[in-house]
Design goal:
The protein contains eight helices and ten strands. With about 290 residues, the chain is α+β, with helices and mostly antiparallel strands.
Length: about 290
């Protein structure tokens, strides 16, 4: 391992739940199967592996590509995409079903379940999630610098200043829109609305490290509020007069295609699912 590149970074996965009927299945797979599988694979080079459950989707949250299950966070010491790490004594259990539950494959895949189409017992989902499928949402896996790059509002805020309703947002500028043009829109037209809004207490931003896995997103931001009402007043009502850009993919702000060019989740500061520290197995209720 001495020749591995020491490259501290953070990653975020936006996990949706495509249908409430899928939630019990998805939660069972995440905690019963996926957590121990993952820890067994990357414990030597990951320092944090946590699930932040999403708060209930706020009104009109779907137009912001709201991930209804959770935000998954990793802190990496080396790149997980190094091909030398692909040799595994025991493969992960990642069936295609999981991608249907998360909205990354159409539900029709489950309905037409045959051996030549789906292997529900293997690791086929890991490879399949890297391919965008028509009629479904891409799997959004953003790698970021370990530390935030832009501190835009609220520097000095502490945990004692109150509860935080943290809106974590990944955005990717549409095809044909340069990053420079997108940044100008984001930082000069959009964020000033949040900067002056008293309901918004904190704004942070970082570039996505697109070179790691070719992620379609360009930026990840966090905008904090006290609660859902503060978010709605600013993100929905406060942006009604924002000029629609020529490249808009939907009629209203954020003007980006939900789940494709924008994904987001509102989460708390703290989670009990800090898995490297708190996971002790899938122990069911009596």
């Amino acid at each position: 391992m001495a020749d591995f590149k020491f490259e501290p970074m953070r990653s975020l996965i936006y996990v949706d739940c495509a249908c409430e009927d899928y939630r019990p299945k998805l939660q069972r797979w995440l905690y019963k199967t996926h957590v121990p599988d993952s820890i067994a694979q990357f414990e030597p080079y990951v320092t944090k592996y946590a699930f932040y459950p999403s708060f209930p989707m706020p009104p009109q949250g779907d137009r912001f590509g709201y991930a209804r299950m959770q935000l998954t966070e990793h802190h990496w010491l080396v790149s997980d995409l190094d091909p030398r790490l692909s040799i595994k004594a025991v493969a992960e259990t990642f069936p295609m079903d999981v991608l249907v539950w998360q909205g990354n494959l159409p539900a029709a895949v489950l309905e037409a379940k045959h051996e030549d189409q789906m292997d529900s017992d293997g690791d086929v989902g890991n490879e399949a999630r890297q391919t965008a499928v028509e009629g479904a949402n891409p799997f959004i896996f953003c790698f970021l610098p370990m530390w935030w790059e832009k501190d835009i509002k609220g520097k000095g805020r502490t945990i004692e200043d109150g509860a935080n309703y943290r809106w974590n947002v990944a955005i990717g500028f549409p095809e044909g829109v340069s990053k420079e043009e997108g940044e100008k829109w984001l930082f000069e037209e959009v964020l000033p609305i949040f900067e002056v809004a008293p309901e918004c207490t904190r704004i942070l931003a970082s570039n996505v490290k697109k070179d790691i896995n070719g992620c379609v997103m360009d930026y990840v931001l966090e905008l904090w509020f006290e609660n859902e009402s503060g978010w709605y007043k600013t993100a929905v009502e406060g942006t009604k007069d924002l000029k629609k850009p020529s490249w808009a993919q939907q009629e209203q702000f954020p003007f980006l295609k939900p789940y494709h060019n924008i994904c987001s989740a509102c989460v708390a500061d703290f989670t009990m699912s800090n898995n490297l520290v708190n996971y002790h197995g899938y122990i069911p209720m009596r």
